[in-house]
Amino acid sequence: MNTQLQRAQAMPLAVPGHDLDAYIRAVNAVPVLSAEEERVLAERLYFQEDLDAARNLVLAHLRFVVHIARSYTGYGLPLGDLIQEGNVGLMKAVKRFDPAKGVRLVSFAVHWIKAEIHEYVIRNWRIVKVATTKAQRKLFFNLRGQKKRLGRLTPEEAARVADDLGVTPEQVKEMEGRLGAYDASFDGPINDDEDNTIPSPAAYLHSDNSDPAELLAEQDDQDRNSRKLGSALLALDDRSRDILERRWLADSKSTLQELADEYGVSAERIRQLENNAIKKLRNAIAA
């Protein structure tokens, strides 16, 4: 076992409130486990209930909790508290990790870590307290992510968000207004000593569900649908694909009339081509 990792066994798992920077430096000093080292420790824990192995697995992944927790600082909550909640999720994941599944621990643990942080945010952030249903919580996390890159939503954008998340456009605009009232803490500063060499363990999955099996299944569905969508786009004719990309995917979206002028047809014909292409994409994803 790595000597540096053995020395780290004396490190307390609780996040100190008085010297968070020292804690972050300490967890970043713990070396990342190789796949073989992780497998050996996981098997000792899973088959022999070796608590020292569990501790070493947790210690080696504390840096990832810090990395994930930093992405939630925009809610205005203490980073130390976010890390502490994430550590709880990490320990739950280590307890349930089955090395026979053939995946790395971080890929499994990320969902538990985020689920614990989500629950903490929902309990403590005043705007999230109004999001009491699953649809409202999903709206909150999705809309907050979009607000970082978009200005105020247009009626068309609000309608699309509402359709995607199963809420009404009025609820989207209402939540947008509540988010706007808290913009002072939206873009809270990220700690300047962040270790940019740490890879992100997984893309953020917006959900208030803390069951990692359901989260993984949803992620698999999203990945599968993305592949289907890419294949369906390639199967379209050049004109239909160009219309869809410029109407839906481009940063500066083209109007129906602009495309009509370019292709020498009516705006209504462009709309028909667009609708037909969308139907083909939906059928491909549903197939």
TrEMBL record:
Motif Interaction with polymerase core subunit RpoC — list its residue ranges: 81-84
Any single biological process term in GO: response to heat
Mind telling me which InterPro entries this protein's record contains?
RNA_pol_sigma-70_dom (IPR014284), RNA_pol_sigma70 (IPR000943), RNA_pol_sigma70_r1_2 (IPR009042), RNA_pol_sigma70_r2 (IPR007627), RNA_pol_sigma70_r4 (IPR007630), RNA_pol_sigma_r2 (IPR013325), RNA_pol_sigma_r3/r4-like (IPR013324), RNA_pol_sigma_RpoH_proteobac (IPR012759)
Q: Where is this region: Disordered?
A: 184-208
- HAMAP family linked: Sigma70_RpoH (MF_00961)
Q: Which Pfam families match?
A: Sigma70_r1_2, Sigma70_r2, Sigma70_r4
What GO molecular functions are on record for this protein? DNA binding; sigma factor activity
Q: What is the lineage of its organism?
A: Bacteria, Pseudomonadati, Pseudomonadota, Gammaproteobacteria, Oceanospirillales
Name the record gives this protein: RNA polymerase sigma factor RpoH
Q: State the organism of origin.
A: Alcanivorax dieselolei (strain DSM 16502 / CGMCC 1.3690 / MCCC 1A00001 / B-5)
